[in-house]
Amino acid sequence: IKQAAANGDKLYLGVIDAGVVVTDVKLTFDAGGANTTLALGYEPYNHADFAASANYFLPATSSVNAGAARSNAHPIEFTKPVALVAVVGGGNLVGTPRITAVVTGNGVGYK
């Protein structure tokens, strides 16, 4: 993050390509505020073929104290590219904490 993020801001962390089955997501973060949360989900990238899910991987209750959170979501297959999005909630992020998402999955191709 290059600048402070406010409550409700979306942080775009990367793109998941079409034809990928995501089996695991881990979010690692520096301290960003005791009452601040991050939800982790996805939204369509350059298309509008399906609905976004702002908290598919992690709910907004993932408090942004220094540490990590791991998704317990079921595997999901993307047939179109999606943006991996963290949504700030509960308050503004304090400072500019580092936030890293590690996505694990399998390329299965798409039609």
Overall outline = globular
Extract low-pLDDT stretches: none
Integer-rounded radius of gyration: 14 Å
User: Hey, roughly how much beta strand do the residues contain?
Assistant: over 45%
The CA-CA distance between the termini, in Å, is 35 Å
Query: Which structural class best describes the helix and strand composition?
Result: mainly beta
What percent of residues adopt helix (DSSP H or I)? under 10%
Please tell me the overall pLDDT: 90
Biggest sheet strand line-up: 1-7-3-4
According to DSSP, the number of beta strands is 8
Q: Report the order of strands and helices.
A: EEEEEEEE
Q: What is the count of DSSP helices, taking H or I runs of 4+ residues? A: 0
Main sheet makeup: 4 strands, antiparallel
Structure commentary:
A hairpin with an 8-residue loop joins β3 and β4. A 4-stranded antiparallel sheet has the order 1-7-3-4, with no helix packed on it. Strands 2, 5, 6 and 8 form a 4-stranded antiparallel sheet that branches. It is globular. It has strands spanning 10-16, 20-29, 37-44, 53-63, 67-70, 76-78, 82-89, 99-107. It is mainly beta.
Secondary-structure blueprint:
Elements: E1 10-16, E2 20-29, E3 37-44, E4 53-63, E5 67-70, E6 76-78, E7 82-89, E8 99-107
Antiparallel strand pairs: 1-7, 2-5, 2-6, 2-8, 3-4, 3-7
In short:
By secondary structure, the chain is mainly beta.
